[in-house]
Amino acid sequence: MSRLSAANKKAALSHTLVLGAALCLFSCASAASSESHSRIAATAEAYIASRHPWQQLSTKITVQNLDPRTQLSRCPAKLEAFLSNGARIKRRTTVGVRCTAGAKPWKIYLPVTVEAFAKVMVTKHPIAPGSTITARDVSWGKRDITTLGYGYLQSLGDQGGYQSRRSIAQGAVLTPNMVSASSIINKGQRVQLTSNDGPVSVSMMGIALQDGALGKRILVKNLNSGKRLEGVVASDNQVLLN
């Protein structure tokens, strides 16, 4: 009885080995005839890496994994990546990968995410509306700027700096819509009015009728003629007339 049992065990083991070998042959043949998921992902990643708009920054590119059940015939040629007509590369972009060679051409789409990191200005403490923002109010932090839909500031601006348009919370990334350029000319201030008419430059004294930031248009009055004129703020004491 024990000899029969041992024979049965041996036969069962032999059957299992044969079945396992058959399954291995089937799966190995299937894998050999299917396109590599890693090759598809690498094609999509390389396409985005060479074309995204943050080339000067440190970036991280993530390609979403394909469903493990996805099987595409192995491409005998180089895979091609592409975007749909009218599509642009953004933080999250759907990239197509296709095989145009072989008996069974195919194409597939993969979501690809780009993170781009840059140093941005972050507030050290809450800032009240109308406050002048100085270096004491900000620190630098590294952020993924692809998530900053309103942009970000890289400096405190030109002469005059910035004023807060509204309340800004502590730890907030400073964005252009949070600030306005600070005035460098104040209403009632005496300023030099300069008019460039061809090769002749004429200067006269005037008075500012409005506050003005660098590069902004303001109304002024010529102190000699009393005329109201419009000009562009060129410095903290000069306005260029039209």
TrEMBL record:
All copies of domain SAF, residue ranges: 118-180
Signal peptide residue numbers: 1-31
Lineage top rank: taxon: Bacteria
Compartment(s) of residence: Periplasm
Pfam families tied to this protein: ChapFlgA (PF13144), ChapFlgA_N (PF17656)
Keywords: Bacterial flagellum biogenesis, Periplasm, Signal
Sequence similarity: Belongs to the FlgA family.
Function: Involved in the assembly process of the P-ring formation. It may associate with FlgF on the rod constituting a structure essential for the P-ring assembly or may act as a modulator protein for the P-ring assembly.
Name recorded for this polypeptide: Flagella basal body P-ring formation protein FlgA
Source organism (scientific name): Zhongshania borealis
